[in-house]
Design brief:
five-stranded antiparallel beta sheet, 5 strands, globular, threonine biosynthesis (chains A, B), amino-acid biosynthesis (chains A, B), alpha+beta, homodimer, Dihydrodipicolinate Reductase, domain 2
Chain lengths: ~230, ~230
């Protein structure tokens, strides 16, 4: 990857990939802007999966986790096999993209990823079988939610780039109820950049981070940027 | 203004002004990106003044508005004469910038602006005199806050570009306590773009919108963009 980027720069070609994180949300361009102007990233923390955002925003009251997953699957918010979302791989990929952009040398295999697929269910032959067995494992997450609630907190499934310790991870974290991550609704993504400049209060971008229209917008925006770099009027 | 922009485009020169709204926050670039890729702005709504953000985030409990203003003045969060912040002119300027960028033909004189400077105090000779007299006018805002509170809402001082009705305004609005604007802290700016693409859930940018470092970052970012447009490697 680093070789590719170094060749790209030497050959005066361009390389854009805004829509790889948060679809049309201005994530990569914001990060590049900060870095190019001399800011230093301390931490990037975000809810990068619309599906997992929705699941934890809805995991409230007396509902069990498997119930929320079933409902989301029904509504088409998850992949046909919800294990594709619950494994955390998609979030891990986004953490790697942001970590590399921030200058860290990380590979997918370096990341500790909290999978929400119970170990015994990884081998289930079908999504149906998985959904049927999932309720048996509700207890652990219910317990974690209760512990969080007792402390005035909520659970959120986040990706973290820790630029100080040069590491990344995907985990289930607890946030105070007045934290911006605690107040999400729907399937919004949210990304917080804590930098030398934005240290006391992070720079936050929030909004729908998936869907055909907004993803196309992100890609189109890159193409127009390319056109401008190649001399188109602004 | 329109003539200037048309000349600029015809002459293949560039015109950037990211830091005019929200300092280093990606506001103008985000808006331009949406428009250039064919999205349609329906509404832009935001808290554009760090000072007024701080004042209303702190206007809670049993505190009077004049007390909060005095404290903010003491801490250096307001202009030497707080009337410069409370008049709303600064917010109105930002609404005009965003409205014009969105294609509306608006002038500052077209905007209804809610001034928080009581009419009789506009003529006060000095900031000291103004601060001394301000407590007499606490009652009205206290009443508005109480009404909002009784409805589970908070007061926020916002600028609005209403692209559907082709108008803008600066006003004191009430927001439900789970609205992103209600949960601000410190002197953060927050801007929500509701567009054809981001209709159900807006695209939101939040963070410190003033200060030497972040403003310089916004300007520097424009300069680098200019360099790229003129052929620098990316």
């Amino acid at each position: 990857y680093l070789k590719l980027r170094s060749l790209q720069r030497k050959s005066y070609t361009h390389y854009f990939y805004e829509a790889t994180v948060g679809a049309g949300l201005p994530i990569i361009s914001t990060l590049r802007g900060l870095l190019e102007t001399g800011d230093h990233i301390l931490r990037i923390e975000g809810i990068f999966s619309g599906t997992l955002s929705y699941l934890f925003n809805s995991f409230v009251g007396t509902r069990s986790f498997s119930e929320v997953v079933a409902e989301a699957k029904e509504a088409g918010y998850t992949e046909p096999d919800p294990r594709d979302d619950l494994s955390g791989t998609d979030v891990a990929r986004k953490v790697i993209i942001l970590a590399r952009e921030s200058g860290l040398k990380l590979e997918l295999s370096d990341l500790p990823v909290r999978s929400l697929v119970p170990e015994p269910l990884k081998a289930c032959a079908s999504a149906e079988e998985f959904m049927k067995q999932l309720p048996q494992f509700d207890e652990e997450l219910a317990k974690q939610r209760q512990e969080a609630e007792d402390a005035g907190e909520v659970l959120r499934y986040v990706g973290v780039v820790d630029a100080i310790n040069k590491e990344g991870r995907v985990e289930l974290r607890r946030y105070k109820k007045d934290h911006p991550f605690a107040q999400l609704s729907g399937s919004d993504n949210i990304i917080a950049f804590t930098t030398k400049r934005y240290k006391e209060q992070p720079l936050i971008v929030r909004g729908p981070g998936a869907g055909a229209q907004v993803t196309a917008g992100g890609i189109f925006s890159d193409i127009l940027r390319l056109a401008s770099y190649l001399g188109a009027p602004s």
